[in-house]
Each structure stands twice: as structure tokens, then as C-alpha cells.
Amino acid sequence: MSSEPVETDDGKTLYPVEPAANLGEGERITVNIKGREITLFNSNDEFHAVLNFCPHQGGPLCEGLLDGTLTMEDWEWTYSCDGEIVSCPWHGWEFDIKTGEHLSKSDYRVPTYDVVVRDGEVYVVE
């Protein structure tokens, strides 16, 4: 496996993060890619990459609790998105790790990055 970035034919760069086997379900790892802290999550057997920066006050977003959320429909609460919602440890702002969207304020979102797995290595795509 390569530890150096890989250039693709379509002009993208793949940054190696971790062998997929080393990141178990529900685990995460934060890496520095081109001066940005990006956290790779293994959630529900999928990998997601999110910038480790809360747009509220700059907290380390991805160090917070990874959980689900409650939604109400027809006056009935339903738990959903298990393992897909990260809460900033500073003030509890919640973001979807798949989309980067804030759960209640659509004006706020965090950057997300595509992720690929090649030959057992997980890469963040830029």
C-alpha cells in the first residue's frame, strides 16, 4: 500500500488515510491533509470524511459524540440516522457526517469529502 498521494486519470488526488481493516465499525481517525484536519468515520460499514471544524465557534467537531437523532412525525418520536450524526463537543451543534448538513439550521454545513477504498487502503479524495 502507498503512503503517498495518488493522482488519478481524472485529475483528482487520493490521500491515503488508513488500511480499512484498521478502522472498525464506529471508529474514527483524524488526519492532516494539506493543512486541514479531516476525520474519517467508519459508520454502518461505510466510510465518511468530514472537516474537523465546527462552523459555530471553530470547535473540534469530529471529537464529539457520534450518534443518531430523534425526529417527530404525527406527534410520534422516531430515532433514526444511528451512527451518522456528530455533535460538536463545545456546544452540541449536530451535523450529518454523510452530507455535512446541520440538523436544524440549513445555513450551516461542514465540508465533506469523497472516500474510496483501493486494495484495502482508505483514501480521501480531493
Q: Can you give a write-up of this model?
A:
By secondary structure, the chain is mainly beta. The protein has a single domain (6-125), classed as Rieske [2Fe-2S] iron-sulphur domain (Rieske Iron-sulfur Protein), CATH 2.102.10.10. 0% of the residues lie in helices and 50% in strands. It contains no helices and eleven strands. The protein has strands at 6-7, 13-19, 28-33, 36-43, 46-51, 66-73, 76-87, 94-96, 112-113, 115-118, 121-125. The strands form three sheets. Strands 1-2-11-10 form a four-stranded antiparallel β-sheet, with no helix packed on it. The chain has a four-stranded antiparallel β-sheet with strand order 3-4-5-9, with no helix packed on it. The model has no long low-confidence stretch (mean pLDDT 95).
Features:
single chain; 126 residues; mainly beta; Rieske Iron-sulfur Protein; 4-stranded antiparallel β-sheet; 11 strands; 0% helix; globular; 2Fe-2S; Rieske_2Fe-2S; metal-binding; 2 iron, 2 sulfur cluster binding
Summarize the structure.
This protein is an all-beta fold and 126 residues long. 0% of the residues lie in helices and 50% in strands.
